[in-house]
Amino acid sequence: MNGTGRFLGAITASVQFLSRLPVHRLPLTGPLASGAVTDFSKTAHGFALAGIIIAAPSAFILWLCVQAGLPHLVCATLAVAALVFTTGALHEDGLADLFDGFWGGHTKERKLAIMRDSSIGTYGTLALVFSSFLRVSLLSALLTATGAADATMLLLAVGGLSRFAMLPVWTVLPAARRPLEDEITTEDKSAAGLSARYGSATGATTIKGAVFALPAAALVVLFTGVGSLFVSLLALAVSVAVIITLARHHIGGHTGDVLGATQQVAELALLLALLFAI
User: In 3-state terms, what secondary structure has residue 58?
Assistant: First the structure.
């Protein structure tokens, strides 16, 4: 596969993994078209650009609602709802599971068992309520402070940067569930953890992912200035450090839920930072 094919493959694989957008219907060639399991040690660097694509429907709805004259709070609510629908609540599920597991269990094994349980508990419910309220409120305030066009572009930037934030967490932390490779069969890989199924991001993946995140960073500079980018990146680094510290303390590593929660926390941190910097 040539360079263009690898580039497109990384983006489409990332979009397919992180959303419900029907990229599998595109006339693709390579592993995605054949239905092979993606190796994210080779393709996860596309997360940031995929994040921009995933946020595009939500950004369009935000702009459309403003043009229709709807109140900013309603516009922000519909935009967040569209984003949740586009991702199938993938990241929200991770946030809820992380809160339920980290604060609902007393041992690492119990925490991991709770996080794997499909039911939602009190901690997870409260986390979703508060995070959803904050996302809508911050986006509404950002819309009021910048206007429809700027807020739309910044929502795209946040979509990209918040998904890039997943890579350093994935890279720095080991897998919390680490069965021996010779003990993993085709049937039980689905229960072995994210990295056992899809591969794990590496330091090189994260560095390359940072390059792929430059378009998202450029959007912040173009619409709010270099100072806002600095504040945003600082907030992003703090959110990543918090997740790494918590995950290491509670379960000793990462899971798919930890990565999903990272995106949500990073999104909130970025919205807050942008609002503060404007």
Answer: helix
Q: pLDDT tens digit string along 98-120? A: 999 999 999 999 999 999 998 99
Alpha-carbon gap, residue 111 to 259, rounded angstroms: 16
Euclidean distance between CA atoms 106 and 260, whole angstroms: 22
Domain membership of residue 34 (yes or no) is: no
- DSSP sequence for 162-224: HHHTHHHHHHHSPBSS---GGG--TTTGGGT-HHHHH----HHHHHHHHHHTHHHHHHHHHHH
In one-letter notation, the amino acid at residue 269 is A
| pTM of the predicted model as reported, rounded to 2 decimal places | 0.90
Residue tagged 């994260």 (tokens)? 206
Dihedral angle computed from the Cα positions of residues 60, 63, 69 and 72, in that order, rounded to the nearest 10 degrees: 110
Series of mean pLDDT values for 10-residue runs along the chain (278 residues): 72 91 66 58 88 97 97 98 96 97 94 93 96 98 96 98 97 82 46 64 90 97 96 98 97 96 98 95
Residue range(s) defining the domain that contains residue 145: 3-23+46-277
Q: Note whether residue 175 is domain-resident.
A: yes
How many structural domains does the chain have? 1
